Amino acid sequence: MLRTRTEALRHIWRVNRCLTYHNQEKFSAVSVSQHNFGCLSKHNQDSLTKHNLAKFHSGSVVRMGGRVSQPSPAIHQFINEEVSKNCVTIFSKTSCGFCKRTKRLLDQLEVPYKSIELNCRDDGPLIQQELQVMTGSSTVPSVFVNGQYIGGSDDTNRLQKEGKLLPLVRQCMP
Asked: Before 141, cis peptide (omega within 30)?
């Protein structure tokens, strides 16, 4: 049972499906899955809904304890380095079905890839936020081939069905 707002925020960050970009200026919490929301007492549900969990400013992420973090140039550099040094890079989460589907496709095609699991990293929320700024997509997986963002799971599968994925991969393979 999640009893405090801090515990709820911590749990929600782990689930990481509760935020959406809103009006290009704020982040606001829009929904928590029924399972997770059901873990909160009625008082905390009302409190979290009433306050939208927290007010977020563009480029900020609320960390545990209510501290606000800004993505650093180091996060942007990390993403660029990973994307440039790997033929295929997937920014993923271990519990994401779409991520698993994308990795399964690449495994079936015997395409080597680097997977960066955001939910296993302390800076995962900041990386995901920076990916949103870079790609326009707030969801995972974020798939890069030959240094170019190709999209998420549906985009990757579509490229494969159209016969365009392997030619893209072959451009960067030795």
From this structure: yes
Written as one string, the DSSP assignment of 19-68 is EEEETTTEEEE----HHHHTTB-HHHHHHHHHHTS--EETT-EEPGGG-E
What is the 8-class DSSP label of residue 164? -
Q: pTM to 2 decimals?
A: 0.62
Which residues is 144 bridged to in the sheet? 89, 149
- Tokens for 149, please give them: 């963002």
Arithmetic mean of pLDDT over the chain: 74
Look at the block and give the residue holding tokens 């990795």.
103
pLDDT digits 0-9 by tens, 4-46: 555 655 555 454 433 333 332 333 333 333 333 333 333 444 4
Q: Which amino acid is at 24?
A: Q
Going by their DSSP bridges, the two strands 56-57 and 26-29 should be labelled as antiparallel
- Residues of the chain with pLDDT below 50 are 1-2, 13, 15-63
Q: What CATH number does the domain located at 73-170 have?
A: 3.40.30.10
CB count in 10 Å sphere of residue 57: 12
Domain with CATH 3.40.30.10 in the chain: 73-170
